[in-house]
Amino acid sequence: MEDILEVYALPPEEEGDVVLVCMDEQPVQLLEGRYEAIEMKPGSPKKEDFQYIRKGVCSIFMFTAPHLGWRHVDALEHRTKVDWAHQIDYLVNTVFADKRKIRLVLDNLNVHTLGAFYEAFDPVKARAIVERLELHFTPKHGSWLNVAEIELAAMTRQCLSRRIGDLGVLRGELFAWEVSRNANSKTVNWHFTTENARGKLRFLYPKI
Question: pLDDT digits over 97-125, tens only?
Fold first, then answer.
């Protein structure tokens, strides 16, 4: 926990060629209405039947740089090691290609391993990605420490409050949300510090 809090406490202006990025994933069920909805018209609201058809489950990948007010979100059919490796490759070699190091905050999901890059890419490329990553894992039951969860919560409220039954449609909706939120440069001002943790969460520390 303290490792994550110390990373958040680093002054943004001192990052230079290093950037802080938080990432998390979220499963989403694709749902399609069984009957076509009756669109709203003057004096009458939209009418939608309660029955729906399950169209499978996909995974949403969320990345956010809290100091920059930037985020990127994507939806894939699966959440495998290779899927994760390709998402990180995009982060490292496209979005932040000009950065020497990426401080990546993430949870301890079993697909989040350095070996994933060697499963997805040739050894030379895999090693090049690994050398530019500085991984910081949230502790067990400590996912609330991940700023990406804040973005996932906002995205869920603002973008997933209705049925979406097609992966392509979902990706289009997520892209529109990403563009809008990035245009507003929404940042996160993290206040919880190591000192706070040692006081308020002292029950989590070993008894000496």
Answer: 999 999 999 998 889 999 999 999 999 99
User: Tens digit of pLDDT for each residue in 123-148?
Assistant: 999 999 999 999 999 988 888 889 99
In DSSP notation, 122-172 reads -HHHHHHHHHTEEEEEPPTT-GGG-HHHHHHHHHHHHH-SS----HHHHHH
pTM to 2 decimal places:
0.81
Q: Coil, strand or helix: which one is 55?
A: strand
CATH code of the domain made up of 2-37+46-185: 3.30.420.10
Domain boundaries, the chain: 2-37+46-185
**What is the spatial distance between Cα 122 and Cα 185, in angstroms, rounded to a whole number?**
36
